[in-house]
Design a protein that fits this description.
The structure is a homodimer of 190-residue chains. In chain A, 47% of the residues lie in helices and 23% in strands. Chain A contains 8 helices and 9 strands. Chain A binds a DNA duplex (30 and 30 nucleotides) through helix 8. Chains A, B: GO terms for molecular function: DNA-binding transcription factor activity.
Chain lengths: 190, 190
DNA sequence: ATTAAGAAAGGACAATTGTCCCAATATGTC
DNA sequence: GACATATTGGGACAATTGTCCTTTCTTAAT
């Protein structure tokens, strides 16, 4: 649920210090609650989280938000739109104070074509997203809220401190009411 | 729900005829109902569907199968495991007569490193999987079975002829009983 | 201190979905 | 035809989840 990729982060930070790539990668800071990228907007840059936590979510015609993932250090967004050549399909919002690295699409594509290791880490990053999504959604579909919540708690013990209840519910695709019920049932079963 | 990628298929077929890549890509035929790749097994090859339809699914501890996607011509599987360096996380089974191209992981990685266009199409393919999954699961979580079914029918008019009811249910993550109810409600509303 | 605003928790009922089971309809075999 | 075997569809009830609304607590502002 909270994705990280320190290997990729390391590479980006090395590139940033490399004079050959002067100015390619810029750093930016945001307060909590800021929308970095809107759904259905034109995407011109790729971002990587340096520090903090962002949520990646889609808003449906029903008005419901569905959270795809929480992106922590080393996670990238805005890259899929380069390949699919469409507007953004999800929104990105900070859920804590966040610092990001930014690269233009043009710069990003050049890195992909010229920098072998960068290219490989990008392939790995995308493959990791595919795999993680597959496993998560399969599990979520096949289990009830209580079991899904238990799984999240096993991944992150202090989940209630990291993520607001509402976001937890939107990640699991259920209402807050139902999430509360699941929490109570877990308490009782201790 | 039925994924295709003719651009990638074209490239593979061209490579197959190219004497430089003699023997790299082999062709194989399967009857309907054959398991090509088992869950939690070691993966040594990458496959691309040439003709026919396969389903990609995970089996959960509850005994439930959850279908990720149906792969048609040009879709690849067995590639994610190269990057994640783990056993297969889903199973692949033919749902019609199917012909496949097969490449060893070693051959695949070499193509990735040496063939620019191949590399780019691989990035595109992975990005497409990420995007498609995101949109599908968000929609499915945010709507009831009836609406989800309507969406599938709008994608593929003749869905009931292509996919068995049980597979449809497993794709939507619901029981056959519930799928039948949704079908009836749709009939009534005509 | 008082008030307003907003978050958090849960009661009550409705809607949806799952589970279990049975009847109807093929399908193929002898 | 008679029989076994699937396959399909749906009834009845249980479990789960959603919707709506109220209450309780904070928190913040004046």
């Amino acid at each position: 649920m909270i994705r990280i990729n320190y290997e990729f982060l390391d590479l980006i930070e090395n590139l940033r210090e490399n004079p050959d790539y002067q100015g390619l990668i810029t750093a930016h800071n945001f307060k909590s609650g800021r929308v970095i990228l809107d759904q259905n907007s034109k995407v011109n840059n790729v971002y990587m989280v340096k520090e903090g936590l962002t949520k990646c979510y889609l808003t449906e015609d029903t008005g419901k938000d569905f959270i795809q993932e929480f992106f922590g250090p080393g996670e990238i967004f805005g890259e899929v739109e380069i390949f699919s050549e469409t507007y953004s399909f999800c929104a990105i919002e900070t859920v804590s104070q966040v610092s990001l690295y930014k690269i233009t699409h043009k710069g990003f594509v050049e890195l992909l074509k010229k920098h072998k290791e960068f290219n490989w880490l990008m392939l790995k990053s995308l493959a990791s997203k595919v795999k993680y999504k597959a496993i998560r959604h399969s599990f979520n579909q096949s289990h009830n809220t209580e079991t899904n919540l238990m799984r999240l708690k096993s991944e992150h013990e202090n989940i209630y401190n990291l993520i607001p209840k509402k976001d937890l519910a939107n990640y699991l695709g259920v209402t807050e009411r139902n999430l509360n019920r699941a929490i109570n049932r877990l308490k009782e079963s201790v």
